[in-house]
Each structure stands twice: as structure tokens, then as C-alpha cells.
Amino acid sequence: MKKDIGNYSTLTFDCYGTLIDWESGIWDAMQPLIAANGVTAIDRQAGLQAFAVIESAEQASNPGMLYPQILGNVHSKLAQQFNLNTSDQLDREFGRSVQYWPAFADTADALRLLKRHFKLVILSNVNRDGFASSNRKLGVEFDAIYTAEDVGSYKPNTDNFRYMLSHIQTDLGVAKDQILHTAQSLHHDHVPATEFGLARAWIDRQHLRDSENWGATARVENRPEIDFYFSSMMEMARYAEERFG
């Protein structure tokens, strides 16, 4: 039986990849390194795929490290992988690049529509300051914000979802069966959300359902069941508007 989006009071969101265009942000932030080395052979797909592998390994190895430091380490290892020369300054600039990552064009309008019907909560894999810089682009006030800095680990570590569920109950009085977790990444979000029995909405901005190019997101071979499928945030918002009349 198809689930009814009207059965949920709260949408919990991944931010980067779902609301913020992190792939464009990452690729833009790689350009100073590529330009400094006079490289023409590295394309966006190769750069993002390398980022996905290195970032996941760094987050798993350094769960308590703040995200700007994670990104700095990733940048250094990207340079090594592509045989490029980097510097401490370039690594630090890449680490501070989250503030420049753009929102998707539909994000702010979609969130404002969804805010009419749901509480909105963030569960993000960055630090508090990093999310604050992105939050200014999102156009709404979230009911709660939980970051990797708060938890001390990075998704897909299940501690992040355990932390969110505990705090959302205490902070907002929201039970698990009232939550629809909304995210782009199968690896970071939908796999662990499935383990916790959360309802799930996949914002498949990359059209991964029909593609082999996974970009900056680690590949998931065994895809979990999804309750709602949308290709954009605005598609989800319009679907909710139709449901609520």
C-alpha cells in the first residue's frame, strides 16, 4: 500500500546534495588546485568520484574532526591521487569552501511551501558554523538542527540517527512514526534511515535510479526500499501541496 505523506508531521533533511548543490560547490572549490597545476585531463566526474571515496574514508577514520579539517585532508589526498602539487593554503581554502556552495534553485521556494505543513529538521554532516553559512540561503527557520559536530560522528554512522531521534523526541515531542526522512544520498542517509525504520523520501537530483554516474556520493549496490521518490525538492513540495489542498 502506498504511504500517505499527510501521515507525517516532520520532515528531517540531509542538507548537502539535497538542499545545497554540494557537487557544484566541491567542483568549483577544486579549481584553484587544478589551475595551479595547469591540468586539463581531470574532469568533473573523475574529481567528484575521487572526492566521494576519500571523504567517506576520512569521516570514518576521524569521526570527531570538524568538517573544515576533514575537507582540508580530502583536498590534500585528492592532490596526491591526481599527482598534483598542493599547499597548506590551498588545503585550508578548500576546507573553508562550504560557505560558497550554492543552494539548488528550487530549494528555498520548496522549503517555504513544505513549512506550511511540516516541522523541518536538519541532520547534516558538517559543523555548526558550516551549516549556519548555508542556512542563510535556505529561506526558512528550521525547527531543529543537528550536525556532525553535535554528534561526534558522520553519517552513515548510525549514531547520527540515534542522536537525532532521541533529541527530536525531547526537543519537539516528535515520535519516529511521525518522521519522513528526506535526502539525496542513499549511502549517507537512506541506508541508515532504513535500519531505524524511518519512512524515506528520495530526492534523486542525480537521477541515480537510471544512471551509473554517482558523482560525489558513494555507490550503494543494494538499494533500500524507498517510500516516496522525487527528482527535486519542488516536485516534493508540489506533491505535498496537492495532498493538503
Explained architecture:
This protein has helices at residues 22-36, 44-61, 67-81, 88-95, 107-115, 128-135, 148-151, 158-172, 186-195, 233-244, and strands at 10-13, 119-124, 144-147, 179-183, 199-203, 228-230. The chain has 245 residues and is α/β, with parallel strands linked by helices. It folds into two domains: 5-21 and 103-244, Rossmann fold (3-Layer(aba) Sandwich); 23-100, DNA polymerase, domain 1. The longest helix has 18 residues, at 44-61. The protein contains ten helices and six strands; from the N terminus they run βαααααβαβααβαββα. It has a six-stranded parallel β-sheet, with helices on both faces.
SSE ordering: EHHHHHEHEHHEHEEH
Strand order of the largest sheet: 3-2-1-4-5-6
Q: What's the rounded overall pLDDT mean? A: 94
Spatial shape: globular
Strand percentage: 5-15%
The third-level CATH topology of the largest domain is Rossmann fold
Count of discrete structural domains: 2
Tell me the CATH superfamily of the largest domain: HAD superfamily/HAD-like
Q: Main β-sheet, in a few words?
A: 6 strands, parallel
- Rounded radius of gyration (Å): 18 Å
- Give me the secondary-structure category: alpha/beta
